[in-house]
Amino acid sequence: MSAPSAGEVTAETSALPGERAVRRVLGASVVVMIAFWTAWYGHRSLVASGTSQSYYDFENAFPLADLWLTTCLFAGLWTLPRRHPTALLWILLGAGGGIYLFAMDVLYDIEHGVWWKSGGGVVELVINVVTLTVSLFLLRWAWRNRVALLDHGDR
Question: How far apart are CA 59 and CA 18, in angstroms?
């Protein structure tokens, strides 16, 4: 195994503060999104917090947006350890998409009293809080490390 060339990034020498946590969060978010939509179309009762047609219609409006969000999170996960400058873009896009998803879900949940209707509503509230927390965590981390993420080295 040869030594890294000038400008080449290795995991041992270049991990930014908190990068491992960010990579775990990105990976877990991708897995959760895939698991949710697999369950939604495979066995809806596992993940549905309601049974009304309006709730189903609301959730059925999200697959394309969630695919975009998941693509951004995966692209951030893929480019971050390679220290490609687009990692900053993908993480910011994914985090911004998470904030948007949070806002859409919360508005619907408030307008329809979802949080207080059943145990599924409490789960929905937890999902909303986690979505906001993860999104703010990724935004904060990416912005604080933007200079390092954009640094090309000698490439």
Answer: 33
